[in-house]
């Protein structure tokens, strides 16, 4: 049962380095002791099966140990997403009935004795709630059971698909940043440890300097950060000879951009496709079919309904936490609606063709157009509001808004951008706000966002 394989790996790892933070190197044996101490402290606080634990931690060895310890005692674990708007933390803690664990809390837990620890999770219990950005009003929590987490591929070499097996050979020094609670960051971290690598904390996580400073061989990178790295290497190259793997996360990578990255950085870019609800769906090795998002492993089932992709994965979430109506729309008879349009070619490679949902992916964060449009329309000067996404070299995609003025009024684009940032967060703030006389209509008489996307945006304000 999860996280049994991680506990076994650390318990038998001895002096092998598993976490590096500046001059501090933590061995497997030391990490195992940290986990045992924290697990004892959690149990003393009556935190175990059926109890919620919310983690808001930094990037350090204790944060990793606390994450594994929370799973080991069988708690329901959620990581606090970064950049929550005011009031959402309280909402999340109340909704999950969770105890907040922060760095100072962990310091106190470390005073506990290192008692024996085993994986205490119950198969049908929710092990992890992975919260989305809250773009639809409040964060949605993807609920994954201990059985599902135990079915994941990361700590089991015999389950690694070909692209993952190749990736595993390149994870000698895996750079971690942002949050160890991130689904992707933790998953590849476990893969790195299983493959014999070391987790290396990045403070701060600036690219490309962090790669050079920490002699990193691998890390996760968003599409926007990848574009910036490519531009930086073209303009002022640094020595990235240690770099062996960049795992692109958050949004699809256009084939032309992928080819450019491979040309500038070498054969290090692993690209693929997955969702918070599903985990990894497919992955391609560097240079493998850049026009696709890779080949799904045999353990993943696919079907297509009117062009929309439905999937089943061994480690998928089972529902949205305490959200039956939204769960019913996405989790259908054991399948997950990806809300993406896709096709499978004769060679088994997956092609993404578009979206069946009105969503923009900004720095790996799902930003839904609807809440932004409704908020903009609350301004007295705005009669109608429409939001689209456009490719962006900095953020992967960026939000762009179009507003139709109310009679006799003149919308203020700068104020509208500030309105969105104050209420929904910076990732939702439109890059541009364009004032239009009327929205173009499709032949069916509906607002034509494709036509809006082809118009020139208002100058950035």
UniProtKB/TrEMBL annotation:
It holds the Pfam family AMP-binding_C. GO terms for molecular function: acid-thiol ligase activity. Residues 440-461 are annotated as: Disordered. Residues 14-100, 117-321 form the AMP-dependent synthetase/ligase domain. Residues 372-446 form the AMP-binding enzyme C-terminal domain. Keywords: Ligase. This is Acyl-CoA synthetase (AMP-forming)/AMP-acid ligase II.
């Amino acid at each position: 049962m999860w996280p049994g394989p991680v506990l076994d790996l650390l318990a038998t790892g001895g002096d092998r380095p598993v976490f590096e933070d500046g001059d501090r190197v933590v061995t497997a044996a030391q990490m195992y002791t940290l986990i045992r101490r924290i697990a004892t402290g959690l149990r003393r606080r009556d935190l175990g099966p059926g109890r919620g634990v919310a983690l808001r931690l930094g990037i350090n060895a204790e944060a990793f140990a606390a994450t594994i310890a929370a799973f080991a005692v069988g708690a329901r674990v959620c990581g606090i997403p970064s950049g929550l708007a005011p009031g959402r933390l309280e909402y999340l803690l109340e909704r999950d009935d969770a105890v907040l664990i922060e760095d100072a809390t962990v310091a106190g837990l470390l005073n506990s004795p290192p008692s024996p620890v085993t994986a205490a999770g119950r198969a049908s219990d929710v092990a992890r709630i992975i919260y989305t950005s809250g773009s639809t009003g409040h964060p949605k929590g993807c609920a994954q059971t201990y059985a599902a987490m135990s079915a994941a591929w990361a700590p089991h070499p015999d389950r690694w698909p070909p692209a993952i097996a190749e990736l595993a050979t390149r994870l000698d020094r895996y750079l971690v940043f942002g949050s160890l609670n991130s689904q992707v960051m933790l998953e590849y971290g476990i893969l790195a440890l299983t493959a014999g690598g070391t987790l290396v904390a990045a403070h701060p996580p600036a690219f490309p300097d962090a790669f050079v400073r920490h002699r990193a061989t691998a890390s996760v990178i968003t599409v926007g950060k990848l574009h910036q790295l490519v531009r930086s290497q073209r303009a002022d190259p640094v020595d990235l000879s240690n770099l062996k793997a960049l795992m692109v996360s958050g949004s699809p990578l256009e084939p032309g951009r992928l080819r450019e990255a491979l040309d500038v950085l070498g054969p290090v870019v692993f690209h693929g496709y997955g969702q918070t609800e599903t985990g990894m769906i497919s992955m391609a090795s560097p240079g493998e079919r850049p026009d696709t998002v890779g080949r799904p492993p045999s353990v993943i089932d696919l079907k297509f309904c009117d062009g929309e992709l439905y999937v089943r994965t061994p480690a998928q979430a089972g529902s949205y936490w305490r959200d039956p109506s939204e769960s019913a729309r996405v989790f259908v008879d054991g399948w997950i609606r990806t809300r993406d349009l896709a096709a499978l070619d004769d060679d088994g490679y997956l092609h993404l063709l578009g979206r069946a949902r009105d969503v923009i992916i900004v720095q790996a964060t799902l930003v839904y157009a609807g809440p932004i449009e409704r908020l903009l329309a609350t301004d007295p000067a705005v009669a109608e509001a429409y939001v689209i996404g456009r490719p962006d070299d900095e953020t992967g995609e960026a939000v762009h808004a179009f507003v139709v003025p109310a009679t006799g009024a003149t919308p203020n684009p700068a104020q509208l951008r500030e309105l969105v940032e104050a209420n929904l967060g910076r990732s939702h703030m439109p890059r541009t706000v364009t004032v239009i006389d009327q929205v173009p209509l499709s032949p069916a008489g509906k607002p034509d966002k494709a036509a809006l996307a082809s118009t020139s945006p208002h100058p950035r304000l």
